[in-house]
Write a structure and sequence with these properties.
single chain, 98 residues, alpha+beta, Gyrase A, domain 2, 42% helix, globular
């Protein structure tokens, strides 16, 4: 675990969420549902996001049903939400918009 990796407190999470479209903090995780025009685009998003997640060594809890991808992020190493969750969430938003 990186030395600067720490769990963010509720105030920090809420402040960062204001800058992150579409995500919510619920049940101790950052959550979002992405809807794509079709299955192929949803799988393409998952593939692109997986490459970024692997680079961060930070792997999401996600599911796919046809054109819908549901994502839940949490940093298990710190037992909460860290900057890694927000980094990956921002990347996912960018990937979904392209």
């Amino acid at each position: 675990m990186a030395e600067n990796l720490r769990s963010l407190d509720t105030a920090e999470i809420e402040e960062r969420l204001e800058q992150l479209d579409g995500w919510e903090y619920r049940d101790g995780m950052l959550r979002r549902e992405f809807v794509f025009p079709n299955f192929v685009e949803a799988i393409g998003f998952l593939t692109r996001a997986a490459i970024h997640a692997e680079r961060l060594n930070h792997h999401p809890d996600w599911s796919n049903l046809y054109n819908t991808v549901r994502v839940a992020l949490e940093t298990h190493d710190v037992g909460g939400i860290s900057h890694l969750d927000f980094d990956l969430a921002m990347t996912m938003n960018e990937l979904a918009s392209t």
